[in-house]
Fold this protein.
Amino acid sequence: MKKCGNEYGVPRILCVGEVGAGKSTALRYASSKLHPSQYRIISVIASTGSVPDILRQISLGLDVEVRTHSTAILLKTIRGILMEISQRKQMPVLVIDEAQLMRLEVFAQLHTLGQFEMDSKAVMSLILCGHNSLIDKLMYHTSRPIASRVVGRSHFEGLKLKEMTGYIGHHLEVAGIKEQLFSEEAILAIHQGAGGLLRRANTLARGALVAATREKCRVVSAEHVRIASTEVI
């Protein structure tokens, strides 16, 4: 985010990936690294609602409640607040998670939100995060104005086996466990069963630990992972 800001001024960033790939976690981590004296984070979880619905969510993210269904009034209010933030030498950063849920008309409206002086000045950065289907929505001609302004794109993929080993080891370390609870075969089974995706890996690892505990085993085996996989949707 900071790198894109330095290179492009007011960037638009796209983050996509499979369900459970760690997109939302990465967003929270990246947002935590932006100093509040320089950035104003506006976090929104998208829905299938109308343009006024998403604008009201944004206004609430700015700590302003606007009781109206008028798109024009909502836009005017939000743009006024964004300009005030910009004048305080802060960069407003609108972060929209689950953006693939938004209607096409919302994409068509979003690009105008942070544009000022006849589209010659942008004061708000935008991060769109969602499933891979988000790219399909950005390909529609009504979404092209915002898609054409994307300067950074990140695709979240599943972890490789070595990365999964480090990921599981990190969680054990955070929990204060020094010994290796998972055998190499168990980690391989988790990696294969999860397809490298973090959320499913977490579920399999927890389930395998429960299975190992029931059998009073000190080390989780591939069989314990197999047992856990029968309870995962």
In short: Residues 17 and 132 are 5 Å apart (CA to CA).
